[in-house]
Amino acid sequence: MRAILAGGGTGGHVIPAIAIAQELKNRCAAEVLFMGTPRGLEGRLVPAAGFSIQFVKVGALNRVSLGTRLKTAIDLPRAVLLAGRILSDFEADVVIGVGGYASGPAMLAAILKHVPRLAFEPNLVPGFANRAVARLVSAAAVQFERTGEYFRNPVLTGIPVRPAFFEIAPKSFVPGSPMLLVFGGSQGAHAINQAMIGALPELARRVPGLRVIHQTGERDYGEVRVAYERVLPSAEVHKFVDDMPGLFARADLLLCRSGASTVAEVAAAGKPAVFVPFPRAADDHQRRNAEALEQKGAAVVLEETRLDEVWLIDTLCALLEDPTRLERMGQAARSFAHPNAARDIAELALKVAGIEDPMKQDF
After folding, report:
1. pTM to 2 decimal places
2. 283 FRET partner, CA 20 to 30 A, in 13, 103, 115, 354?
C-alpha cells in the first residue's frame, strides 16, 4: 500500500498523522509520504519520525485578510497541479487529508485523479480544508459523532493518543490535599497564566492544602514562578513538560485549553477538566470541542472573556470541594475515549483503498 498523508501546520494535525503513518507501516508495510507546507510543524516533526515529506506552496483562505485570500487563490491552482504530480509520481493508493493548508490541494488533486481519499477530522467542527471536500471524500474518520453530519461515510474512530494516557488509573481524591494541573500546550496559554496569578491568593485561602502543577511555556515562566513563590511555594512550575501522562495521573482536576488532541488526552485519562477555549481558534473549534464534553457532564467550559479572578476562583473551588462530582466527570470523560484510534483509522484507509487488511486474513 502507498499512502499520502496531507496537511499539518500545528501539532494537533501533525502528531496524530504521524501515529496513523506508523500504524499503516506496522500493519501492512505501507510506504508513506507526507505532503505539507514549509512553515508548518510537519517540516520538523515528520522527518524526525522517519518519514519523507514533500512541500506545496499554499496559504490560508479562512479568517485572513483580503490580500492573503487573493494570494492564496493565485497559488492554489499551482499547488493542486504540484500535488497531482506528487500523487502520480508516488502512485498513491489513498490520500489521507488531516486538515491544514496542504490538505486542500492534495485532496482536490485526489478528487481530480480519482484516487481514493479519507478525511481525518479531530475537531467537532471540520476545518476549512476538510469542509471544502467533505462531500467528495470516500470516507471520514472523526472524533465526535456530530462531526459525521458534514461528511460522506463517516466512521467514529477518535484520534490517536499516546497509550500512557489510557494506562492512567482512576485517582482517589485525598481530602485536604487536592491537586490542580494547569497547562496551555507547549507554548503555554498567556490568558490562563495571568488569570492564575491573579486568583492565587484567594484560591489558596479558600482551598486549604491546595497543590498546583503549572506548565507555563517559555514567555511567562519567570512571572508565574515568582507569583507561586509568594503565595504557594510548594507549587511545581515548569516551562515545558515531557511526561504529561505522569502529571495527568497525579491531578484531581485540569485547567487547560480544548484543542482536539488535549480533549482526546483528557478523555483517554478519564480526567475532569475546566476548559478555557482559545477564542481565536479557526471556526471557534475549541469552544465546540469543549462544549461537547460539557454537555455530557465531563467538563466545565469557562470562556476566556470570563476568565477573571472571581469566575475562575468560584469555578475551581466548586469543583475541588465536590469530589463526587469530580469522579462523575472523570467517568463521563472516559466515555469519549478511543483507545484503538490509530488501528481503526488504518483499517478504514485500507478499506477505502480497496486493499485487503493483512491483519484480518483468515487462516
Report:
1. 0.89
2. 115
